């Protein structure tokens, strides 16, 4: 029951936070100069009419009310710059699958690899496999993903010619052709995650392997492998699992740079191009800012709750 | 006997002696020095080999950032903004000044595969400019060209510094004289003879056989662009020639002027040093002097293609000429230039760029050092400001607790939930026009950056505020501020400092990402950023990997070394790890 109450409380706070942040964003965007386009050869009456329709002539508070009334049902208006006239929500829904597919592939690749490397390093602590893996992890955790992007693009795509350097598939996000185009991007996204998982698991597991209850497990007759798999690994998953869950929630937001680099038509690229457009496409900006804020808030809640689900001894929110 | 031995009751007085003559009793003095908190941390930091390596790399990078911009010709760096010629020297590959040409390692060469006709053009250009572009032919093979014809291909190592295209440039009279004087002084030929090209559309009257529409081609060729040879098998130059010098009335404005300073050239050896008696009305560089009645050409003007406005002007004295020449529209010289020699003439040093040049011909080494300097300074500034704000905020939260803590935590929760990209974009849109891009970026990093530091400080304050020494200080009447910053804060200093060091690579990473994505534009002739260098190089980096290679190595090295250093620092300051390694 306390968990239910805790979830409700967290959700309530998250909604409040979301409301405040998006309101601030909206007002800050509206405070920017929004000049009437007075270029040569433009029908001023039409422009005037259009601005009236969009409500730009009304006070900011009126626009604010209007924004929230429509935003709640997913209407964030039409694109004004990069997709002239199309509803931003429609474009957004079109783009989401590409980002989701990319991130699911990379998560699916990185979890097993990261966990296996972490286990190998922890079991062979202070021997050469551990040193090798730890050094690799240190490098791959620190180096930014776009550096791998360049390496992968140069070596695998350009020198060896295995993959296309940019996304070329025209079919859906989950098609085989798209998968082939995704491969370099998946690699770049995975390196960091693999290293992250390996590092966390190594730290946890090597601590647990020296613990008393593992000694007990060995004294009662389990082999080293049995003890490691049945006792140590399970306990080591306590901090890993929420991280994985958080990653799954954040799959939609984690690839701004990689999407840009490999020209993947995903949400991140949409966001960057909406900002880079001149003038910036504010309707896209509002929608995607709301999206990223929401993802961040939800990920936080889910991670916190998952701690208590996976390990009953941890009672989040309990006094 | 036994009785005597154990007679304890009456020991004679003289048998007693002082244990210590000085009359004081105390413990032995400590022979080792006491190990304080910082010293202990330092000892444990020194044991961590990887952190030491990281620290050395960090020091090396900082030195690079400080000294780097001064390690190159300063005039070259400072003329980025106004110099349009630099674009000619774009994409030069990395070259060390002492590298052996053709060794293939850091010598300014790259491997290319070119067709036979291109290969011949390179060879011919080498004959004219004296710059050996093709260092080594690695391999030749035959490829199938368009229409099924076999094309001979050359795989060769190309010196990019000798491979710069010949170009033309307009000079004013003064600039032109200066260049001529330089040539006479040093004996290095900067100006190449003027070539007239066959112009299909304008049906040029000039009898030229140089068909190729390529400024590098200086020899006569057939209609397909293949060179034609004379009977000895040499290339025939297509330089502009005198028609008839003895009769100035036949000299027309544009074909009169010509070029080559060869021994058979009629004007060869005649430098107009004698007093001038008459000058050609249309072209002041042709004159008669008092020695004989022959029209001659000022040698200094050889090789140029003077452009004179259609308004005929008469020049009586050289002074007039100078006055008129300052107007480049009316009086200018179009000159065909040897690119390598022109570089030496203009910038005063032999070109060798350690990290190569970018699309604008700018030196990547100094640009990278400038970018590094900016990144490091920026990150340290952000880290320091966040430290101050976060420490004060966290101290108040942690010390007072209760309602103040609750409210302040909600505020920081809300701020922490804003995606950093949104903050940056909004700050950039609102402030960059008013206060500049860098301050706007700084504000946006501070806006949400202090939260981590605040929560770290808050934790420390919660840990220490109920300790006895705090109670003691308060009993002695210390005010809150004094207890907070004099007593509790120094105890949490290690954690806080480590935190602010670990913030630095994060800030550099974010700044690089933002500039890479082009959301923040920090690129200008006087300022650069690593992210902008990466994104600028991305379009050409399959052809010229050095554009991206060095910035990428730099940022990778920086991140790894800072993380190693920071982790070592964290372990050293972590009291729970004290004595674990021993």
Specify the biggest β-sheet of chain B: 4 strands, antiparallel
Please, what is the average pLDDT of chain A? Answer: 85
Task: Tell me what portion of residues of chain A adopts beta-strand conformation.
Answer: under 5%
The total count of helices of chain B amounts to 17
Fraction of residues in helix of chain A: over 70%
Tell me the name of the CATH class of the largest domain in chain B: Mainly Alpha
Number of strands of chain A: 0
Q: If interface size is counted as residues with C-beta under 8 Å from the partner's C-beta, which chains form the largest one? A: A-B, 42 and 35 residues
Gross morphology of chain A: flat
How would you describe what is shown here?
The complex is a heterodimer of chains A (319) and B (582). Chain A has 319 residues and is mainly alpha-helical. Chain A is 73% helix and 0% strand. Chain A has a domain of 178 residues: MetI-like (MetI-like fold), CATH 1.10.3720.10. In chain A, helix 7 packs across helix 9, helix 8 crosses helix 9 and helix 11 runs antiparallel to helix 12. The model of chain A has no long low-confidence stretch (mean pLDDT 85). Chain B contains 17 helices and ten strands. In chain B, strand 2 and strand 3 form a beta hairpin. Chain B has three domains: 229 residues, MetI-like fold, CATH 1.10.3720; 65 residues, no CATH class; 139 residues, no CATH class. Chain B is 45% helix and 10% strand. The chains are: A mainly alpha (319), B alpha+beta (582). At the A-B interface, helix 1, helix 5, helix 6, helix 10 and helix 11 of A face helix 10, helix 11, helix 15 and helix 17 of B.
